[in-house]
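Protocol step 4 of 6: structure prediction from sequence.
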Amino acid sequence: MEYSAKQALALEARAARLRGYRSGAEEEGLRWLAEFPLGSRRCGLALESLLSCRRLTGIVPVPLAPPELLGIFRHQGRFVPAFSLATLLGLEGWHRDPEVLVLLQLGERLAAFDCEEVPRMHAIPLSKAGQAQVEALSSLFLEDGQALSLIEPSLLFGKYLQEASLAPG
C-alpha cells in the first residue's frame, strides 16, 4: 500500500508520539503492552515488537504448510509469514472471525498473526513485567484480578523463522 506524503508524515508523527510515551513510561516504572483478546483470554505483547496492524487480506496460502501458517504476504517488498495465533498456542478459537493482521518486528525478521481487533495500549508495572519470561506464553495477574497472557514473540515465532532462514532457495 502506497501512502501519500501527507499520510506518511502523519504516520511518522504518530509513531514519534508513541515512542515518547514508551520512554516516559520507563522512567515511571511501567512497561507498555499491546493488549488484545484471544477467545476468552486477554493477551499482551511488548509494544516495542509491534510494527503495524492491517486488514486481514492479501494472504497467499502456502501448499502443504502446517496448519498454524495462514500463508504469506508482501510488506514493503519482503515476504512475511502470517500465523494463526490460536493454532500456534493450542487455544480454543476466536469469539468472532479475525479481521486484523498484527505485524511484528523480531530483530531483522518480520512475522504476523491474526487477531480479532486492533491491539490496545496497556501499561503494567515493571515489577509484574520483570518476571523472567522463558516461555512463549506466561500468565500475569493484574491488580483488577484478571489474568493477562503475556506472549514473547521471539520465542513463539523463532522456531518458524529460523526454519525459514535455513530453507534452501
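Step 5 (inspection) to follow. The mean pLDDT is 80.
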